[in-house]
Request: fold
Amino acid sequence: MAKKPLKYYLMIPGPTPIPTRVLAAMNHEMIGHRGPLFSKVMKEVMDGLRWAYQTKNEIFIYPSSGTGGMEVAVVNTLSPGDKVIICNIGAFGARFVKICKAYGIDVNDLKFERGKPADPAILEAELKKGPVKAVLFQQNETSTGVVNDVETLAKTVRKVQPEALIVVDAVSGLLAAPLKTDEWDLDVVVSGSQKAFMVPPGIAAVSISARAWKAYEVSKCPKHYWDFGLMKEEAPKGHTYTTPPESLIFGMRESLKMLQEEGMENILARHKFNRDLLRTAAKALGLKLLAEDSCASPAVTAICPPDGIDGEEVRKLMREDFGVEVAPGQGELKGKIFRIGHLGYVDSLDLIGAFAALEVLFKRLGAKINFGAGVKAAMELL
Ligand SMILES: Cc1ncc(COP(=O)(O)O)c(C=O)c1O
Reply:
C-alpha cells in the first residue's frame, strides 16, 4: 500500500541538494558590497572559480540563472548579422539558437539527433564552407543526458578557423565532466551555481579569454545589465556593477572550499561513478537509456520507461508515492523519457534509494521487469 512519503529527495539535474556547510554559510549577515569586506570574499570566490574552470582568464559573476549567462556570452562578443554555428544537440542548444536569433545573429543551426553528441566531422565540414565569428555548444546537454567531446570540438574549430570564438555552455557540465578552459583554448565558458557547485540557483559565471575581449571591443549587440565593460571597471576592486547576490556568494565561497578539499580528480570520479552506477542498475532492469555509453553524461541520465508507461506518470508517482523528484523529458522527448540527476550533492546511496523506488513503482504498474535486479547490480558495483 502506498504511504505518504516522509522525506523529499531532489533527484533532478539542478538545482541539486545543498550541503549543510553551504546552507550554514549562506546564513550570513549582509555586508557592504562596495567595501573591503566584500572584496575579500570575492577574491576567494574568484580564485575558486578559476580553479574550477582551470583558467587564468577573467571571470565575472552575474546575479542570474544560467540562461542569463548564455545571453551574456552572446551580447558581449557578437553583433547583429554575424555568422555563427551552433551545435544543437538538445533543448539547451536550441536555446542558444533562440538567444542568437533574438539579437539578429545569422545562425547555422547544426542540429544533431537527440541522444547523440555533436559530430566533430560534421562541424569541420560546416567550418570549411566559410568564415564564422563563433561556434557555440553545450559541454553537457541536460535535456538528453549527453556530454559533448569539448576538447575535440575545440580542436576542430582551431584547425579550420583558428580565430573563431569558442563559446561553451558548461552550466550543467562544469565539475561533472572534465573541462580545461585554458588548455583547450575556450573563449567564453558559462556556468551556473545550482549545478555541480551545490549552491542555490542565482549566480551565472562567465570566463572571458583575450580573444573574447577583442570581440567585445567590436561587438554591437545592445546591452547594459550584461555589459562586460561595466563589470570590468569594478572587478579590480573585487566588486560587481550591480548589487551582488551576497547570500549566494557566501554559499559559493563555502562550496568552492569543499570542492577544493575533495579535489578535482575525486569530484570527476564521483560523478562518473554515479553515472555508471545508475546506468548499470537501469540496464540490469532492462530499461533503455537515451544516450549510448560513449557519450553518457556524468551529470544526468535520461531513461526510457518500460513499454506502456509514460515518463510523466513516472514523475508524478515517484513524487507522490516516494517523495522522489525526477526530471521530465523536454520538448519532443516529453513523456518518452524521464531524467535522474546525479550532479552536485548526490551520492551513490541516494541513487540506489531512488532506483529502489523506481523498481517498486514499475512493479505496481505491472511492467515486466526483473524486480530487484537493478538495485542488486548497483549494490554489486558499490
Ligand atoms: C546546459 C544548460 N544550459 C543552460 C541552462 C539554463 O539555466 P537556467 O535554467 O539556470 O537559466 C541549463 C539549465 O538546466 C542547462 O542545463
Observations:
- The mean pLDDT is 97.
- The first strand starts at residue 9 and ends at 10.
- Residues 20-261 form a domain with the Aspartate Aminotransferase; domain 2 fold (CATH 3.40.640.10).
- Residues 139 and 149 are 7 Å apart (CA to CA).
